[in-house]
Amino acid sequence: MTKIIGITGGIASGKSTITAYLRQKGYQVIDADQVVHDLQTKGGKLYQALVNWLGTAVLNETGELNRPKLSQLIFSSSDNLAKSSQLQNTIIRQELENRRNQLAKTEEIFFMDIPLLIEQDYMDWFDEIWLIAVSPEIQIKRLKQRNGYSQEEAQQRLASQMSLQAKKAYANQVIDNNKTVEDMKMQVDSQLRRLQNE
């Protein structure tokens, strides 16, 4: 019986560190952000849908999506955000489902990293949901370092998301990522041992 584990968390909570570690341990991980990236490349399904909606203004000189411009347009109004979500979610969900069904044929345990797992209602896809939890202060600090955001921009991004506190109600396991990477890996290892023994 295949076990499918959903991984989620807020922005800058450390999901990519954990998924990289899981891959290192030999597990398959479907990364929703990577899937979106693939779909947004020139000629991809999402690329077409976004250009049809927003026009060629969202493209750069080589005809690829201009991500900063796209992000700016989408986050500029709640209407755009809602429309973008609806448009993208349908296409993304189909693609994620295809990839999930493929892996379920060959893997005993695999993971799907979906940042908006709860908000987009993917809960029933999984045997377990792991939440990567980190304090808002650390999220803001990482966003400023990693993305070069100002304090205000970082707070805005955080405010536009469901709080980690609210997400805890949906999680089967909470991985605390407020300390060191080593500490986080130890928590993941103990969860993996538990999964293999069940």
UniProtKB/TrEMBL annotation:
Compartments it resides in: Cytoplasm
GO function term, MF aspect, one: ATP binding
Principal location: cytoplasm
GO cellular component terms listed in the entry, alphabetical order: cytoplasm
First-tier enzyme category under EC: transferase
Highest rank taxon of the organism: Bacteria
Binding site for ATP: 12-17
EC number: 2.7.1.24
GO BP annotations listed: coenzyme A biosynthetic process
UniProt keyword Lipid metabolism present: no
InterPro entries linked to this entry: Depp_CoAkinase, P-loop_NTPase
Record Pfam families: CoaE
Record key words, sorted: ATP-binding, Coenzyme A biosynthesis, Cytoplasm, Kinase, Nucleotide-binding, Transferase
Pathways involved: Cofactor biosynthesis; coenzyme A biosynthesis; CoA from (R)-pantothenate: step 5/5
NCBIfam families named in the record: dephospho-CoA kinase
Protein family membership: Belongs to the CoaE family.
HAMAP family assigned: Dephospho_CoA_kinase
Role description: Catalyzes the phosphorylation of the 3'-hydroxyl group of dephosphocoenzyme A to form coenzyme A.
Protein name as it appears in the record: Dephospho-CoA kinase
Protein species of origin: Streptococcus troglodytae
Name of the gene this protein is made from: coaE
